[in-house]
Amino acid sequence: MSTIRQDAWTEEEDLLLAETVLRHIREGSTQLASFEEVGKKLSRTSAACGFRWNSLVRKQYESAIILAKQQRKAMNKQRKSEQKKVNNHEDHASPHRLVSTREAQPITLSSIISYLESVQDSDLQGQQLKSENDVLKRQLVDLEQEHQRLQKQYKQLQADYSSIEKEYQTLLSFMDKARQLSGISWGEQSILKVTRDQSDGS
Hints:
By secondary structure, this protein is mainly alpha-helical. The protein has helices at about 10-25, 30-40, 45-55, 60-90, 95-105, 110-200. This is Transcriptional regulator.
């Protein structure tokens, strides 16, 4: 079994994803089928391809998607027209020819088994997609909780910083007052010393 990749997408992979999805749209296929095709080519899960398409790549190809849908509509119209011609032709065909046409494509046991296996594969793929979707949802919830935790931590750090800033400003204010008081006291001591010296000299 090949290893499922989880590394970053390249521009070439995005282009392959877009081309494949657009081709499936034109051909009237489903996007799920296109995601599975790309997933096999790139060794990624179809859920990862679907997430990449819907979250990022799709926005870059809006006009191309509209064009692909128009082409699909034109192709369907052409097919219906051709089928109508075939049906009209078969209506005028002989009963013998109708019987031989049915007998040319008999329903066999192997065709029934093949059909049932394809249905089973579809169920398994659906279960796998559901499981991958559940994992992605859980991861999203975890990321949201982590985001909230970091926000609270950031707000607490802001509050702590604000408190420290106020304390620092208060300390600076005290230091300025202390310097002022110290200057006045020194001046007073100088005046008293000069006065004493003068008294002693006289």
